[in-house]
Structure formats: structure tokens, C-alpha cells
Fold these 4 entries.
Entry 1:
Amino acid sequence: MSFSDISTVLIVLVVLAVGLRLLQRFVPHHVREAHNDVAGFIFAAVGVLYAVLLGFVVITVWTNNDAARQTTFKEADALAGIYWISRDLPAPVGPQLEHETLAYAQTVMTTEWPLMSHHESTPAATQLVYQIRDTVFSINPVGDQQQVLYEHAVSHVEDLASERRARLNQVDDEVPVLLWVALVLGAVLTVGFTFLFGLPNTLAHTLMVLSLAGLVVLSLVVIKELNFPFAGSAAVKPTAFQVFLDRLPPPR
């Protein structure tokens, strides 16, 4: 959680605390206490509906975030498959394919990954996929062993291109604006209903309201941080590609 997120939570809690203080001053608890039964019934219905909505969105954004992380590992696995096949291919195709896979991993990590937080990608990485594909298709297998390597290489190239497309599609995953409006209005309505209750103990009332508000705001912050899989404090990192590069022998 970033400093701005913590500041937002604290500001909301301070504003609510001041609001409760003013409410207690101008509308004493004994005035509101007469409506506790009706307010409690409506609050229970509103709370359940909002909890369902909030839980659904949190699970959805978490699932999208985890799916994006899995996609990066599948993409890196396909790239690793091509690389290890290139080590068994003769020159000049083998070394060329080897260098192209390394260049792709480096380009994705250093150039494309920062761009993805702004919902962009780099044409250089796309061009490298085309080069890898063209190099693989240029292989003229001699013998059964090279034929097997060629078939596996083609399969890995198809997987690489497929997982790359999936990753770039996931860059634009986000909570729709309409759903954000529902989340914010639901939060205001849910917390606002707690102001209608009248309790003789003002401190207890304040603590209960701030606890509920803190939980709701924290949930919204979690949704914001997970909203874009490749941005925010919980952004997917290029770990898969880093692991791929760290475990490779020196290139030929």
C-alpha cells in the first residue's frame, strides 16, 4: 500500500469522525435512537448487498491479476523451450535463434514492462516474435532428431505468440467506470446509514462507524491496486523472464 493510499484512508476516517461529532452536537442521540429499529432493518439489507458487490469485485480483480501472472510464466516457458532447442541446432540457425530469444526477453523486461503500466507495448518485441518465427520456419531439418526439434520449436513459437497476445490483452483489464460508481456510492450509502443510529455512548458509536468505514475504504484501495495487473503496488513483475535469463548458460 502506497503512502497516498494510507493518507486517503486516514483522511476519510478523520472526516467521518468530525462528521459524527457534528451530528452528535446538532442531532442528539436520543432523537436518532427512536428510529434505530427501522434504520437497522434497512442497514442490514444495504450492508448485505454491498458486501456481495464488494466481495465479487475483489475476487474478480484478484483472479485477473493472478491470471496475468500465470500468463507471463507460460510465455517465458515457451521462450525457454525455443532457446533450449536452439542450443541443439547447428549454425547459423541455432546461434541466431538463441540470440533472438535472449533479445526478446531483454526487450520485454527493460522496454515493454514499464510501458505496460501505461497500457502500452513496444513494437520492437512484436518484431522479435516475427523474427523468431521466421527463423524457426527457415529450419530445414535433416534426420529424425532435427525433425523432432523442428516440430517442438514450431509448437513453442505458437505458444509464445499466443501467450504474448494474452498478456497484452490483460494489460487493459480494469474495473468498468460504472462499477466504480456503484462501489463508491454503495460505500457512501452503507457508511452513511450508520449515522442514523443513536447510541448513548458516543465513543462506542464512533469506533463502530470508523471500523466499518476503514474496512470499506481498505477494500476499495485493494481493488484500486489490483485494478490493472501491470500497475500499482501489486503489479505483476517480470519475474518469469528474469528467472529465464538467470538460468541460462553463456550464449554461443
Entry 2:
Amino acid sequence: MAFVRPTGVTYFEPELAYDSYVLFTGADSITRLIDLGGVVHKQWPYAGVPPRIIDPALNNGRLGDIGIQLSGSGDSRGGIFANGTVGQLDWSGDTVWEWGSEAPGGAARQNHDWESLPNGNRLLLVTVPRVVPALGPAVVGDQGLFEVAPDGSIVWEWLAGDHLDELGFSAAGWEALRATVTRDPDDPWGYLELNSAKSLGPNRWHREHPGGVFHPDNILISSRKANIVALIDKATKSVVWQLGPYISETPGAQHQRINAHKVPRPVDQISGQHNPHLIADGLPGAGNILVFDNQGGAGYPPAPLGIYAGSRVLEIDPSTRQIVWQYTAEDSGLPSWTFFSSFVSNAQRLPNGNTLITEGMTGRLFQVTSSGQVVWEYGSPYEGLGVGGEPEVREPRVPGVDRLTRTPLVYRAQAVPFDWVPLGAPASRAAAVDRRGAL
């Protein structure tokens, strides 16, 4: 029996949607640039974790360069160990920069995130196999950050295993963490599963308080497995601000509480979250943290979650730790479980105030207004086998899955302004508008 789900553009209100290209890697390990009509304008035979068209302002004005993974490491563990080299391609597909052989162990092992920095360097989230004394004698996949110069040299680094005592684990949390590592030191996604790393950039908190913790160079990271969002001071390497791992004021799942949609309100328990980042200057909500809160099983020990599974997107004021905006399926008049991705996924604020959401587990990309109205929706038609969070990984060791299975998974999509690529605005937009009556 075949499982049939809608793919392509399934809904589009052009008057309300923010018009852009959208970049994503499909579960077939091909990266594509589409317009809001679903037309593919460019594709690359590589996966990105995530793929990203580089802002020309950070790329000497050159249009259409993309950051992507270029080769595998050959490591049979897959997951965070799988990447050999990362690189930058120009619009023609020629390699502008490639890095990995210079890394410790001869492989980049980049996973989950990377960033082009204003100084011309690249910030890479990487895996470093090593012994972490606080976790026992076994070699584990420790995750951390490398800042890599254009010549390939590592000019700054931070390793999570050196800072575990700063993350606020309880005695029970340490016990659960160590037991997990002992049981599976070769966990293909890492004992913390760091899934994002983003420098803050210029922001109002730093302008108002130059000596505070929100220096533009400081880096916001996320640990999916530990339910932690943490801010790393770039100069001292210390954790200087944090959400999680335990938010005990309001235990239980947010969808089963009175006033669960009233904002502002204090942050409640996040679980399995992805890509917390400061909304950039010039965008609605600038200075607040936007995060995809998966509400998937996670935590040391596991966070309490309710039976009505549903993900949410949260906008958080970091100065007050208040939720000031959120999106759940209920904000679109639907049951909570109709919007749910227990892993992967992303949210991106757009210039008109809409938010592009990647419901990654199902391969669904959609835009919502600030009131929760869905104004564009797309289902990825590109399927692959045995993907467990990084689309290029083909081996069958997916957490909780014993056999290869077909999936439309999308890790993270990016809304790409028309003037970032040589194409300009697509002529196909008119055709997309004409389709609305059929959607």
C-alpha cells in the first residue's frame, strides 16, 4: 500500500506571502533553489547541512555563491562523523574554497551548522572524536566550533566537553548523560547533538549595554539532546547566558495548559529545539531570539511532555526571558499535532513580518503571518532512504529505526532574496499567482 501525501506548492496567497527564492536540500541529497511557484531554478548535486546562499555583503559582492558539503569522510558511524570536506561553490558550480583535509584527523566533520563571518572567516560546527574526562574513558564524538581562516588555518576553537560543568546539569542529569555515553559512545548524532551555532551580530542589547553579554561576536548554540540554548562569550569561551536544561516553573507540555497561547509569558520547557538565533537588525522582532521548539523527546533526564504532540516556533525576549510571539498549529485553527517535527526543522523571520517555517520531518515548508495565517505551503517531493537528520547520510543507522525507510525530510530551508543570485526575480511568479485558484 502506497502512502500518498501532497507535494509541490499546495497553497499560495501572493498578496500576503513574502516573495523570495527558497533553498533546501531534499532527502535525495540534491540542493535546489525554487521560487514560490515551486519551479526549480538551480540545483547542485550536493547536500548542505544546511545549504546556504551566501550574503553578497559577506562575499565581496559576488552573487550566487553557495556553502555546501562536498565530500564524505568514509567514517562508518555516519551522522556527525560523516563529512569529509565543506566548501563554497560559485554560481557556475566551480569550487571557490574547500576545507577538511587540514582539520584534526583529516576530515572537517562539519555538521548541523556553519556561518560566513564579516572578517572573511567561517564558523563551523564540527565533531572532534576524543576522550572527555567528565564522561568517562571512552572516545566520544565531542562537538564544538572552529573558526577557519580562508587559508584553512583554525584561528579559534571551542569544545563542548570542556564546558559541561557550565551547562547546569542536575545530579540526575549527570547520571543520565554518563549512562547514555557509556551505552553508546559512538552515537552518530553526539551526546549533546549541537544543532546550531550563530554569532549574534549587531544588536540593540549591545548598543544599549556595550559591556553586557550580547556582544556581536558572541555565539548562540543549541543542544538538542540536552534542551539547552547557551550563549558563548567569544573572548573568554565561557557560557554567559542560557535557557534550559530545566524550566520547572511550568512543567508538562505547553499544549495542555491554560493560557498556553497568551503572550507575553515566561519561557516554559523547551525540548529538542533547533536553530535559536537573534533576529537581525532591520527585521521585525530584531533582537529577539527565534527558535523552532520541536517538543520532541529530549533531555537529561527526559523533559516531561504531554500526549498531544505538537511543535511550536517561539520568539523570546532575551532580556526578560518572556515569550513575546509564538506559532503553533492551533494559531492556524488546527489541532496541535498537525504541526509536529520531533527533530530537524527551522524558522526564519522575513522582512514583511512573516516567518518561513521548515517542518523538517515531513518535508513541509510554509510561511505564516504574525497572526498565524498560512500564506504559502510546499511539500518536498524529493525522497531518500534512511535519512536521520542530515540528508546526505545514506547508512541505515537512524536513531530508533532499524531498516531503511523512505522519507521526504528537509533539514533546514533558507529564504533567499532575489538580489543575492544572478537570476534576479523569476518570471515564473506570474504563473504561480495564476495557480492560486487551483491550490
Entry 3:
Amino acid sequence: MNNPQPKEWLASQYSKNYYADYKPLNFVDGEGVRNSLYVSGCLFNCEGCFNKAVQNFQYGQPFTEELEDQIIADLQPDYVQGLTLLGGEPFLNTEVCLKVVTRLRKEYGSSKDIWSWTGYTFEELLQESSDKLELLSCVDILVDGRFELAKKNLKLQFRGSSNQRIIDVPRSLAENRVVIWEKLQAGK
């Protein structure tokens, strides 16, 4: 597993603006009905990663304006709660992710939520580059931390290992401390 120093891994140096997959109307990548964008590329290389193929920054295909339009259109129904960013590593693909979340906020305001998974911890992201901080400020719920095979637990809610946290990002930023998602099920 890799542990970067602050600002060591810059999206501008690694991202090829590829995505691995897009899944509209899914129920597993966060709360409610969601549209999920899986970006390509990750440097964490966690042992036991369930999505090893998408660690390659050129896996999949280039992100297009047509896909962006499709994602925004797929968010329109009232029953769709929001968008999830995962991969790969969203915070190493900030150009793509910021493009989508900025447009989402412009068109839907806060009526749709944004979830993201990341190998970074919340505290690491606070020391990161301006693009990563901008993306973090757009996210409502962050599942943070590297997957740790020794802490794998399939009973956890929206996480793969017990070190990972589900964080309420707006409250955490406002209170200058990690605030755990209020709907986290005890022991899960």
C-alpha cells in the first residue's frame, strides 16, 4: 500500500481523464437510488482491492461531454437521490469529477447529494492540492481511508474494512473535526 506525502500525487500528473464505468440507477454505492461514476486510476494499490483493473489510469475510455450530459439527465427523476464518485481514485481524477459535480450543483443545487469513496483519509485531504480541496468541498458524504485486508468486514455499511469512515463532509468542514454520518448503523 502506498502512503503519499501531502501534494505528492497530483491529479494533473496522473489522470488521463478516463472512466471505467458508469452505472445509473444503482442501490449499492451509497444511500438511496444513485448514479455511480467509476473513474480510472489509483495509486494506493491496496492489498485485496476489489477493483484492481481500474487502478490503471488508461482503463476504460475517455470521459466525454456526452457522458456528462447523460449523468446530469439521469439525475433528474425525483427518486434519484444523487451521484457517487468512486473508482479508481476520484481525488486523482479531479478534472472529470469537478466538471460533473460543478454542473450537478448548478442544475440541481443541493437537492441531489454527492458521495465519494477515497483511499485518502479526510485529514490527508485537508493537506492536499487546491483541486482536491475543491472536490472535497462539493462532496456531502465521504467514505475515507485505504482498504485494509486485515480489517476486512463484509457486514460493514458501505465500507470494506473497519478503518474506513463514513463522514458528513459539510459538518466536518464547518466544525473543523471529523463528523461521522448520522445514519451510520451502530456496529456496522
Entry 4:
Amino acid sequence: MNNIFENIDTICFTGPRPAKLYGYTKKEEYQKIVDQLKEVIRGFAKFGIKNYITGGAQGFDQLAFWAVNSLKKEYDIQNIVYIPFQGQERLWKKTGMFGQKDYQKMLALADQVINVSETQNLDMTKEKAEIDAMLVRNEMMVDNSQMVIGFFPFSKDYKKEKGGTASCLRYADGKIHVCQIDPKTFEIQMVYCKGGEIS
């Protein structure tokens, strides 16, 4: 297992929005996710894995960012945010959980912010351009990582399910290692990818 982690320097995250978690008010439940994530990230950081990419979206993405951020005092790690386009937060509430204020604070604290629509020269005037930018964002995160941590139930098959998290895990499957975390039990399931072979 050590040899596998020696070849990893970047991990990205994918997971659901608040509607599929605990909504916008249950801080205690979300703190539990952050605390559990910290333990997972701490385990990888001890192997020297330095870079952690999140997508900036409401829900799991932001929880993962704050988990990484809280460990920066313990480890020499980088907290990187890939935003799909400028202003993805414009329809969010100004304040409160996952609001615009927290989003701006997150971007200010990030070690690096990459605007995917700009770096990939996406035409944001097209119909459904924002949805497309989010999908490209997910693919770009995977392309620049060696492992994805996915917050996705073991009871469901991400190869068949709809939604952004399942789509991201499908894209990663066979390309990079997949660390799947079950949202209910927080058990971990690893799918290793080495030279195109999954084990």
C-alpha cells in the first residue's frame, strides 16, 4: 500500500449538495462530516500527499475544503479550489451555511483558485453553459489528481446513478484511484488503479 501512496501527490473530492445531505441548517451533522474527513485526510497527509482539490460547490465540496484548511497547521498541504465559472455563488443566500459570505472566505483562504471556464476557454454564453462548466470542472479535477475521494453510498452504483457525484466517479473510474466513503457509516472502500488495471 505504501508504494501506491508514494505515487500520489494530489487528491480531489466529489460529493453531494446540501439537498442530498442535511439541508442548510444542521451544523452539528455537517461538523461530524468535517471531523470524519479530517481523519481520512490526516491519514493521507501522513504519507506526504500534499495537494487537495475541491470544486467550491455547496455541500460536500465546501466541507472537504474546511477539513483540509483545518489541517494546514499540522501538515504542509495545499488547499486548491477549481471553480467552474466566476459567480457560481450568485444565486446562493448571502449569509448562513454554504452562503456567499462563506464562499468568498473560502476563496480568500485557498492556496490556489482555478477558474475552469477561463483556463478551458469555455463559451459561457451558450445554453446550459454553466452545467457544462461544472462537468468540465469535475473532469479537470480528476485529470489533475491521482485519487478521488467520493462521498457516495455503497448501496448505490455510481456507474448507473444520475447526478454530478456519480458522473465524476464514473469519469475517474479506471483512470485514478477511487476512495469511496459511505455517507451513513463513513466506511471506506478503495478501488486501486495501476497501469490501467483495477484491483
